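In the design runs reported in the main text, the only information available to the sequence generator was the tokenized backbone. The following block is the verbatim input for one such run; it is reproduced so that readers can re-run the procedure and compare outputs position by position.
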């Protein structure tokens, strides 16, 4: 019975975060430059999914979202969907979401339960921005050139820094209110002093 409850809770969390990523695409997108890759709020959802659910459930939430997109649902910012998105200029970034959410989740587990804010921001920038850029820029470079791909990524940086800060603030508060969301992380009062190790 406990396993059933745990599985149902996990599935609900995965579904909720897949829906959150979709909802963050509703405000639309802004396309800057000639690369055709839009600036959206959906990378904020990637940071939140990894930071709150952890690597495994965060990955599954992004995977569910991308499966729905591939099936034709217009869930990407700007109302895009269908298998054609995997041949478009942002395909590398979509693959990067899958890897990035795992990195965010894995690194977040390492800094819990205390979750120092500056470390949370750094985690979000590494997994939710740099890892995604790595895949996105590489794919664009194959289609265009390295110069155009790197230059095209620069407008994303300020927004991703802001999203990393917002995500860290939210993740810190969520884990403080609901400790134990990420399996394997011991729940402890984040305000408590570190335990002394007996010599």
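Verbatim output:
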């Amino acid at each position: 019975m406990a396993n059933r409850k745990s599985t149902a809770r996990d599935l609900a969390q995965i579904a909720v975060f897949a829906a959150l990523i979709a909802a963050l695409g509703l405000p639309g997108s802004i396309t800057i430059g000639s690369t055709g890759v839009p600036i959206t709020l959906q990378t904020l959802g990637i940071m939140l999914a990894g930071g709150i659910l952890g690597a495994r459930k965060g990955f599954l939430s992004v995977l569910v979202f991308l499966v729905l997109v591939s099936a034709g649902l217009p869930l990407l910012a700007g109302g895009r969907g269908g298998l054609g998105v995997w041949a478009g200029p942002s395909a590398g970034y979509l693959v990067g979401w899958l890897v990035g959410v795992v990195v965010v989740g894995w690194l977040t587990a390492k800094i819990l339960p205390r979750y120092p804010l500056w470390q949370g921001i750094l985690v979000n920038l590494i997994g939710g921005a740099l890892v995604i850029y790595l895949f996105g820029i590489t794919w664009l470079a194959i289609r265009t050139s390295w110069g155009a791909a790197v230059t095209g990524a620069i407008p994303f940086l300020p927004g991703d820094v802001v999203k990393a800060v917002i995500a860290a603030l939210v993740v810190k508060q969520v884990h403080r209110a609901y400790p134990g969301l990420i399996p394997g992380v011991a729940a402890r009062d984040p305000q408590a002093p570190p335990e002394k190790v007996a010599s």
